[in-house]
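Marked as duplicate of an earlier ticket. Keeping the data here for the record.
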Amino acid sequence: MRLALFQPDIPQNTGTLIRLSACLGLGIDIIEPTGFPWGDRALKRAGLDYWELAEVTRHTSWETFCLARADTPSRLILLTTKCNQPYTDFTFQADDILLLGRESAGVPPGVHAAANARLTIPMQPGLRSMNVALAAAMVLGEALRQTDGFAGAGNASAHVGK
């Protein structure tokens, strides 16, 4: 399982997702351009000291990301508000890539169409969306539960907030 961020524009969210990926033993793909300089202080602060533990792959464009995954059997699963398929009714596979759109604009139609599946988080009527890092954590938790993908399952030394 991997996370992929399409042209993220908030460094704190990107840093948080890099930290989440490191903690869960997952790779993360950053599809550029980003809306911030890669060395941004907010990005580094949100990632804390997890940078060396994270498997981060940067792609210079959507096209280079597609080329990099062309020979893999993985499915591209887009998290979006523009569909009716709840993530809770979906069967995940261990090699899925969960794709998250740009915080300010989601993904363009061509990227939306390239996804093998499009999933949403059911929310209260009238609300637009939630924070991308929170959405990723929710869906990733379900995907890892379904695929027995928690690397540290049963690890009593894992602590939240430390």
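See parent ticket for discussion. Residues 123 and 130 are 9 Å apart (CA to CA).
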